[in-house]
Amino acid sequence: MINIILFGPPGSGKGTQAQILVDKYGLEHISTGDLFRYNLKHNTDLGKEARTYIDKGELVPDNVTINMLKQRVEESPEAEGFIFDGFPRTIAQAEALMKLMEVENTQINALIKLEVSREAIVERLLERGKTSGRSDDQNETTISKRIDVYLDETSPVFDYYQNLDKSYGVNGLGTIEEIANRLHAVIDHLYAIQRETIEKG
Ligand code: ADP
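That is the input. Now the predicted structure with adenosine-5'-diphosphate docked in place:
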């Protein structure tokens, strides 16, 4: 089992790349952003609670997000591994994920960050906002707030996994295929490490 956190600022291409990884490695993709959007669309209690934060570009409170994530993981007991996208976004979420993985008798193998400049992100999100129907992509103030939140609250999560020797960075600029190939190189390396560990017993 291999569990990966796909990391990076909003608009760095996590969703696109996660889909390619699902097809190649048979991992299960869990995106907290997608889970929230599903709840917004169906106007569930969770959706109603999340909306106020999402529309302002703020993070949904940790307890809400962590419970939702736990439930989603528990729905897939047969998974061969997960790609976490948009989670963890705070140190508290990283700690909760660590505990959850322990309970499931597994672990996070790596965090891989897609590196993209602030200018490129704003441009990409405004472009996506034209077609995605996501209101949080159509407003430059909300976009700017999300980037600030990423820098203040989320980027320390990279250091958290770096202290465990599990953080990797990949250049997030280029064609979708070029970026996918960079991710494949890292993930193939993770599988190789895992095989070696198993062979050594
Ligand atoms: P982005 O495109 O900005 O990377 P997502 O699609 O992952 O964003 O998430 C959209 C919004 O949902 C975020 O701006 C935030 O309000 C909320 N959200 C998603 N994941 C989390 C999380 N792990 N913790 C708190 N809030 C979250």
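Residues 10-11, 32-33, 36, 53-54, 57-60, 65, 86-87, 89, 93, 136, 146 surround adenosine-5'-diphosphate (CB under 6 Å).
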